[in-house]
Specification:
- By secondary structure, the protein is mainly beta.
- It has one domain (about 65-445): Porin (Beta Barrel), CATH 2.40.160.
- About 10% of the residues lie in helices and about 50% in strands.
- It has helices at about 5-30, 35-50, 85-90, 160; strands at about 70-85, 95-110, 115-120, 130-140, 145-155, 180-190, 200-205, 220-235, 240-255, 260, 265, 280-285, 285-290, 290-305, 305-320, 325-335, 345, 350-355, 360-365, 370-375, 375-390, 395-410, 415-425, 430-445.
- The strands form five sheets. Strands 1-2-3-4-5-6-7-8-9-14-15-16-21-22-23-24 form a 16-stranded antiparallel barrel.
- A hairpin with a 2-residue loop joins strand 22 and strand 23 (about 415-425).
Length: about 450
């Protein structure tokens, strides 16, 4: 070995350093106070609940957890139909009917502070079930307000956008034939102005998506629809017991198949449209056209128990050859609450809202001594409407209806309606004819 003395010295120095370190550690350890066992025991459960830290602040879990609320609706209708001989020749022999008009379930909720969603199914319409509203939305979007995408009503017509259980009559008016229904698309909307007394909405839609939100086409099939509303009169002191609403809407539409078609029922319906049930009384059949423009104006006035509502809709079609047809429809309705209530208004969407009786129909007591208390709300109403589907070689017929009704609101979520409709039809080749429909509806929603 060349360096025996150096290796021996290195080994001795290493052992000396290790021994010195052990002595210092032992000395320092004697200076550390004993652990606080109570503090450790109290800390362990808290540590177990703490998520791993990522170095960034994270939102509370509860603000992100989705919420869910279930809603539903059921309507049972009874219809009794009378026709003169000319009407039977024109539309066939229409039977009396009992019908589950609507049977719906819907789920809605939120995810965090800005995401909302709705999905609803109807088990009474053709399709069984049929897809209704199915959309997701984002609130408080800069410059736009709110945005939703999915399957829902296009922003057109006060009567169409107002939920059916908030209507004065069993069915929408004849003018509803020109109001676009639910379609798949994307929409921006918001309320604005002093006290949110105005609304706007604009969207891009598939113009003829089916009951499941589907549309297949390689030509056309698009629609741009917009609506604006205002409240020139709104009584803040009574929270809107007195108000005046106006609105205007426009829709530019191209058909997916190169044709449009319009039809209307006599403000009464039962089941899938057939000759045995309630067929359309006016019907254009297919109209070849490159596009259509829908224009609508609306007005509603509520003065305590008295309400007046009206709309006028015109449709202009553009044909490649021949004259361009112009079709139109309108209605005026009046309602009065015998018990003093009033129709209410949803300022966020510019539509009519739920009726709240002053005294709900309720049962007081139990057993043999139980009695009924409260009258609910009682309303009488009348409506006149017309639709003209004849112009420029379009021979769909013309019809005007007169409807009178009596409504009993047992509470805000259940109603009974009685109606009588007289339908006056003028359609080739028979000409003028008349039908009468008496109807009754039991209606509940939650």
């Amino acid at each position: 070995m060349r360096f025996p003395h150096n290796r021996t010295a290195f080994a001795l120095l290493t052992w000396a350093a290790a021994l010195s370190a052990c002595v210092r550690f032992s000395s320092a350890q004697s200076e550390i106070p004993p652990p606080d066992l109570d503090s450790i025991e109290s800390r362990v459960p808290a540590m177990a609940c703490e998520p791993p830290s990522s170095g960034k602040a994270s939102p509370e879990l509860g603000t992100l957890r989705p919420t869910f609320q279930l809603g539903g609706q059921m309507q049972v209708d009874y219809l009794w139909v009378g026709q003169d001989a000319e009407n039977r020749k024109t539309v066939g022999d229409v039977n009396d009917a009992v019908d589950i008009r609507r049977a719906r379930l819907a789920g809605r909720g939120e995810m965090g502070d800005i995401i909302e969603y709705t999905i609803g199914l109807d088990f009474a319409l053709s399709g069984r079930p049929t897809l209704l509203d199915a959309w997701a939305g984002v609130r408080d979007v800069p410059f736009l307000g709110n945005v939703r995408v999915g399957h829902f009503f296009e922003p057109f017509s006060l009567e169409r956008l107002t939920q059916n259980q908030r209507h004065t009559f069993m069915e929408r008016s004849l003018a509803d034939a020109f109001a676009p229904a639910r379609n798949t698309g994307i929409e921006a909307y918001d309320s604005f102005g002093d006290g949110d007394r105005a609304t706007y909405a604009i969207g891009w839609f598939a113009s003829s998506s089916d009951a499941y939100g589907q549309q297949f086409t390689d030509t056309g099939g698009q629609a741009i629809t917009a609506r604006i509303t205002g409240l020139p009169i709104w009584d803040d002191l009574t929270n809107g017991r007195y108000f005046l609403h106006w609105g205007a809407a426009y829709s530019f539409r191209t058909p997916p198949s190169g044709t449009f078609a319009f039809a209307s029922f006599p403000e009464a319906r039962s089941g899938t449209p057939t000759a045995d049930n309630m067929p359309p009384f006016v019907d254009t059949g297919p109209i070849e056209a490159s596009h259509a423009q829908h224009f609508g104006v609306e007005l509603a006035w509520v003065a305590g128990p008295l309400s007046v509502q009206s709309e006028y809709i015109i449709v202009s079609l553009d044909r490649a050859s021949g004259p361009d047809p112009v079709l139109d429809a309108a209605y005026v309705q009046v309602g009065y609450f015998l018990t003093g209530e009033n129709r209410t208004y949803n300022k966020a969407f510019g539509i009519m809202d739920r009726v709240f009786p002053f005294n709900d129909m309720a049962r007081a007591g139990t057993g043999a001594g139980a009695s009924w208390a409260g009258s609910g709300a009682w309303e009488i109403a009348a409506r006149g409407s017309y639709i003209d589907l004849e112009d420029a070689n379009v021979q769909g017929g013309a019809m005007n209806d007169l409807t009178i009704g009596l409504n009993w609101y047992l509470n805000a979520y259940s109603r009974v309606r009685w109606e009588l409709v007289q339908a006056n039809l003028d359609r080739a080749p028979v000409g003028r004819s008349r039908a009468w429909i008496a109807g009754m509806r039991f209606d509940v929603d939650f």
